[in-house]
Amino acid sequence: MTAPALGPVAALDLTDAEFRHVGQLVTRIAGIQLPPGKESLVRSRLAKRLRALGIATVREYLEFVERDTSRAELAELVDVLTTNKTSFFREAEHFRLLERTILPALARAGGPINVWSAGCSTGEEPYTIAMVARESLGAAASRVRVLATDISARVLQRARSAEYDTALLEDVPVALRPAHFEAVPSSTGTVRVASPTRDLVHFARLNLMGDWPMKGPFDVIFCRNVMIYFDKPTQERLVSRYAALLAPGGYLLVGHSESLSGLRHALSYVQPATYRK
Ligand SMILES: C[S@@+](CC[C@H](N)C(=O)[O-])C[C@H]1O[C@@H](n2cnc3c(N)ncnc32)[C@H](O)[C@@H]1O
């Protein structure tokens, strides 16, 4: 596209009706709620997209979205409005539990070990799972398969590249770095998750609100800092779909600000943000 046609990002006008319209679209497609208070976030994210398209007003943009029968722009709209904050070893208690308790027990039981990172963003969560699996199980980590899914094509592209600025490694224990990261020759300050850690992770695009092609069962499902954007009925439906896909004794790990209390579900509470079938 040509040079940006708009002025400063903050200058984009967004009426209340347009804000509600955008909110309805992303809720319908992705379950994501945009409650009052999110106007400035929506305004700044839309401004970037409108600039990229050379479109001047939100009204014209929404008409463009409606006209686009391929629905590609609707996917772009959802993509720009998702929040993708993540980090390696985020909410580290889950990784201690995985390393010390969950994975050793699964290894003793024998057979493949299936883990799903649902809402994996740029990949730090599934690659942390893979690092922990190799640290915990050694050669037996080859039995682990980590499925990592997200609705956003943009974050999945970054996740698949497995390349990270070294500044993002601050929560990766220093002793683990040589085994799991390699230098990227063409780029100083960037490292890549090394094989075989990288090879344990398989990325796929998946909207949690849609059909799920995988049959499971999963031994562990990470769905952390994703449900926080959904309303309660949507969270309840999602948790019951996760429960159906878990193996008996399997774990559902949610974000530490996302307790399941207040939701009807059939899982047992283990410890904060940790549930078991
Ligand atoms: C804040 S990030 C959380 C990343 C990681 N799980 C963590 O805790 O660090 C939330 C992710 O959920 C994804 N997401 C939001 N709605 C989704 C949906 N309906 N289906 C699939 N992924 C979704 C977003 O694209 C985003 O990458």
Summarize the structure.
This protein has 277 residues and is an alpha/beta fold.
Could you characterize what this model shows?
The longest helix is centred in the middle third of the chain and has 17 residues, at 93-109. The chain folds into two domains: 9-81, Chemotaxis Receptor Methyltransferase Cher, domain 1; 93-276, Vaccinia Virus protein VP39 (Rossmann fold), CATH 3.40.50. It has helices at 16-30, 39-53, 58-67, 72-81, 93-109, 124-137, 153-161, 177-180, 232-245; strands spanning 113-118, 144-150, 163-165, 181-183, 190-193, 201-205, 218-223, 246-254, 268-271, 274-276. Helices cover 39% and strands 18% of the residues. The strands form two sheets. The chain has a seven-stranded mixed beta sheet. A three-stranded antiparallel beta sheet has the order 3-5-4. S-adenosylmethionine (SAM) binds at residues 30-32, 82-86, 90, 119-121, 125, 150-152, 155, 206-209, 224-226, 229, 255.
List the SSEs and their pairings.
Blueprint: H1 16-30, H2 39-53, H3 58-67, H4 72-81, H5 93-109, E1 113-118, H6 124-137, E2 144-150, H7 153-161, E3 163-165, H8 177-180, E4 181-183, E5 190-193, E6 201-205, E7 218-223, H9 232-245, E8 246-254, E9 268-271, E10 274-276
Parallel strand pairs: 1-2, 1-7, 2-6, 7-8
Antiparallel strand pairs: 3-5, 4-5, 8-10, 9-10
Helix pairs in contact: 1-4, 5-6
Bound molecules: S-adenosylmethionine.
Give the key terms.
Chemotaxis Receptor Methyltransferase Cher, domain 1; three-stranded antiparallel beta sheet; seven-stranded mixed beta sheet; 18% strand; binds S-adenosylmethionine; Rossmann fold; 39% helix; 277 residues; alpha/beta; 9 helices
